[in-house]
Amino acid sequence: MRLFRPVGGHREKDTDAALLRAVADGDAVAMAALYDRHAGWLHARLARRCADPEVVRDVLQDTFVTVWRSAAAHRGAEAGGWLWTIAARRLVDARRARERAARIETASVDATRVEHDPVVAAPSAEERVLAGLEFGDVGTALDRISPELRDVLRATVVDGLTTRETARLLGIPEGTVKTRARRARAELRAALAQLSPTPLGGPA
Known about the structure:
mainly alpha, Rna Polymerase Sigma Factor, Chain: A, globular
């Protein structure tokens, strides 16, 4: 499979914001420079969350196709956080599609009374934890907290990034990461308390 990758890339010194403005105007060279700058770490981070290399490649391609189509929607100086939000959502979509395919395959096998079980890989412990963070009460609560706090929480908790890595990803100071992480946990706890009659962590 060939990744979406425009030819060119002599605009590497431009800022993310400048590149995205050019991409919004249809500049394929700017798109190539943006790809060269961000594809590597995006691929590595996706691979940490998904063991299937084909899914990772598909999600990476879908991410940059989305960037090509939606560059005008980006706001701010750094593109890292925005790109990762797109990639994470595409990964969730890919997992949902894979789960639907597995359910269809299982139903088909049951209907025809095939004696052997379908070959469907069981989700890993990490995938189950991540699914719990994306869906259910935790996922709903995450959607209710402030976007800038949610980005920090997902980077530090879901992706397991350090404070320094999160600061580089989101383009904010490390001190801001720490402050937002504390606020994010407080907002998440409050949001979960509204969703469930039992407080997070049990009675105080």
